[in-house]
Amino acid sequence: MTSWSGGKDCCYAMMLAINQGWVPKVLLNMMHENGKRSRSHGLPLSILKQQAQRMQLPLVAIAATWQDYEQKFIHTLQDLKTQYHLDAAVFGDIDLQAHKDWEDMVCKAARIQSILPLWQQDRIDLVHQMIQNDIQTRIVSCNTYMGEGYLGKLLTKDLATELKQKGIDPCGENGEFHTLVVNCPLFSQPIILPEFSVATHNDYCFVVWPEETEQLAQP
Asked: Domains of the chain (ranges plus CATH)?
């Protein structure tokens, strides 16, 4: 199982896990309680489904509040372990110890192994590795220090260097920004992205997809 946010880190972690001999069987994404957007990256379910289809993998999307997130995550891991005969779960975290501790805990509860292929690697080196390995990502949310001008931009080596020079983590590991994988070696073809608008809310800038605009317009 891969904990799939739709962004660059989980994608590269999955690629490295495959190189280590692991076989991906299912993707897991935790959604907002309405089940329409992912909690981690704010991606609509339709785009996550596109990614899964490009990899010919099933996607399990679980709606959860922050209050029942952990309980539902563990319960889902247990169900997926039985259904897909899982031995392990792959995560894309790099060096936030609290995240690793949580992932180790939920996997222990489900009696499977936690695998973190990116753990404690240098962040700028990781971005370069991802780009060299043909992972193409676009920025879909960022803090207001970066600003709306970065939304939709393709993450390149030059852009990663620019962010680092501005004091922004080039991996966005501290939540500075999130990405969406639009193409990579795991995909049969690139993701088709609809036209989008941008918005700022609570000191964070994010892409607004057409289906969300329609929902907001409904009385």
From this structure: 2-115 (3.40.50.620), 133-217 (3.90.1490.10)
